[in-house]
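Support case: user asked for a sample of complex input and structure output to validate their parser. Sending the pair below.
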Amino acid sequence: MMTLNIAFVSKLLIIPIFFGIFVSLFALFAVYAERKISARVQNRIGPNRVGPYGLLQTIADILKLIQKEAPYPFGSDKIFFNLAPILSFAASFVIFSVLPFNYYLCGLDLNLGLIFIIAIGGFNVISILFAGWSSNNKYSLLGSMRSASQMISYEIPIALIFAAVFIAFNSLNTIDITKAQENYFFNWNIFGGDNHLLKRILIIPFSAISVIILFIAFLAEANRTPFDIPEAESELVAGFHTEYSGIKFSFFFLAEYSNMFIAAALISIIFLGGFSSPFGYIGSLLNSNFIINIEQFFWFTIKSLSIVFLQMMVRWTLPRLRADQLMNLCWKYLIPYSLVAVFYALIISYI
Amino acid sequence: MMNEAYNLEYKSLKKEGDSEIMILNMGPQHPSTHGVLRLELKVNGEIIEEVIPHIGYLHRCFEKHAEACNYQQVIPYVDRMDYLSSMYNDFGYAIAVEKLLGIEIPERVEYIRIIMGEFQRIASHLVAIGTFGLDVGSFTPFLYCFRDREKILTLFEKTCGARLLYNYIWPGGVSHDLYPEFKNDALNFLKEFKRNLKDLEILLVENKIFIERTAGIGVLSENIAINYAASGPMIRGSGIPYDIRKIEPYGIYDRFEFNIPVGEGIMGKKGDCWDRFYVRYLEILESIKIIEQALDSLPDGNVFEKLPKKIKPKKGIVYSRVESPRGELGFFIISDGSDKPFRIKVRAPSFVNLSILPEIAKGCFIADLVAILGSIDIVLGEVDR
Amino acid sequence: MTIKEIFDLLKNRFENIKIYIEKFEVGEEYIVVSPDVLKQILQEIRNNPRLHFDYLMCISSVDDANGEIKKDENGNKIIKGGTLSLYYHLYSTTRNHKIAIKTSVDRENPAVPTAIDLWKSADWHEREAFDMMGIKFEGHPNLKRILMPYDWNAGFPLRKDFITPEYYNDLKIPY
């Protein structure tokens, strides 16, 4: 497996660079898309001056953020103050190694892929606590503790649903889950997976519940509306990233958009077929692996981007939940339903 | 000296074995849109024990200025008190001065005043609804409300030249007649607006998260409402049908048919934030009815015939009140026979409604306080004058 | 009930109190009482079931400017003697009638009992009357300035002989 030959070393070099470029381009694109989509929903136009159709707006913003003065707050702990945004972004970036983009571009072939994701997701929580504590600001600390409790609570439904997925689809390895859904879209897990008819019909409600629970829980993990209390302006408490400005702030921002993409990618891997195309590959007609890889990359990105679009639309439509209503939703509703999903998956797995 | 005068203590107060009470400050500059209001909160964890509002940041000495100007020169000052519904301020002042003068105004002027007043009520309620949604966290209804409000302000601009502060309704008449296509423009706008209101209904009125945030919060019971002299949607949200247009009709309001929407506690308790919000939403629908009836029967005439050149009322005292979008707006004018008023006192509805805030905000979360403040719908220009 | 009927009822109820109706050429008529019986009258009009005035709309403070105009040491005109007046406007939500009551107090030492225990809406109105005109309300729990800054010590702005000070806390007040 891990023999040190040319293929392995080339993979080791190309994949991180590729993912690095992809994440940066995605973040640029996502910020621009969010501003345009929110503008169109609200009957405005959005950025259209910088570059054609406003496409270079994010680059202008990044240049502005780079040249800003980023002072340290009085009495702050410099090590953790600098570590928090880097850790936040690094955690999101590490998770990319488990997401398969096509046959070639899968970083790690872990048999415990989904559990790896939950484990690394804990770094998000730690980075927020670092940020709140090292700002030496009473209100930042309160905001970061609220945000940390929100993220920890919502990891539980995610873990339970991943357990249910393991029971129903027999694998925690993201690559295997994707490969089991190849060949035509009615093999996707949301339409029942690659099984005989009875099991298909039984899996469909399971997929439906799981997708909804997973979507809501990932919105809360990424601190998006309706769960965006840490970022809310009209609430009194300021939130953990008040004292950050310049590049450090943009790291938090980048981490949030990467988390959105990871959420979308996971939903599309588990339920929508990952990188497999709905009707077979053109490349297999031409017998070219290279074209198959390009197609798979294309399909994966399209599916993930549509779920990212859905997350953005939800943000601009719904109001914000209060802190206790949020915890109420998680502990009294999402966790019991995800336990129901686990039991249902147990029943399905015997058929 | 400053600290004593302001009576603030910047240390936490221990309350007999209970957890500490912290003093927080929602300072004069706000991220939300309410203006310069300072709220001092005594908080126990996240629950508010006491709220003390500090006002006076926008005090512009309107009453002292009015003693140095003519009756006509006061009108632009009156506009700027409640700058979101300035047609109604003009209307109230004009009615008070006309009571002092004892003149009769032409029919057409009465109809024009009511049409303008009701359009202004719709515009002001759209701002209230939009910013209430913004406080609670939904960004989109704010822009939909402002898009429709822009169209109303365009109608006003074509009539009198100003978008926000009109100087339009003078004692004895109005400053400009309606332009020729006003009736068509207004009817087209109302047709389109009724369709757009459906969007608002889905986004806010029936939205489950919005209902969770606002129902059962900031309940104002009837006795407290009357004792604190609440008015406008505040008191109608608590179930009391107190509307000056029906109790003491001014202008020609008694010729039109419209209902008074009252809060009934559909979604939570009677008198909570959702009721006040829903009363405002229903009042928009009622105003549309009044405007359509008025546009139907608008008579012709000369609007400038009774405009007095010089206003010099005889000695007397009058207190007249109108139903502005925020509540009961009262003008108390004392005239001593000269052409300058001796004393004008304005009873501003937001001033009185804001004094209820310490009473209804006890025991709620900080996040709820923002919702309660949004549902009272204050305009700082009126509170401070 | 009209104002005349209310006035007759109050006159019958309190025989030895000086109370009369005043009316000018235009405008409304109002009932004038003296400040020492003010609290009794206010209690009566709230509690009497035929009157039942439960809604206090407005309390206005007026500087009557009916004293003598003198010049003080700097050459500024000040008014000595004379009265300050308070106008209470009330409304009854159950009986649908309204009334206006006037009292006058001395300019040198204006003090009136507070109405806050009868109607809570009097709270901020009285604070504003104190702030702008200097009338003290005995029994008010929190009689501080409300519109002017809390440490403003240069007089009461709405009096007719108010002179704008030049400096406030080392800030020059323009024109």
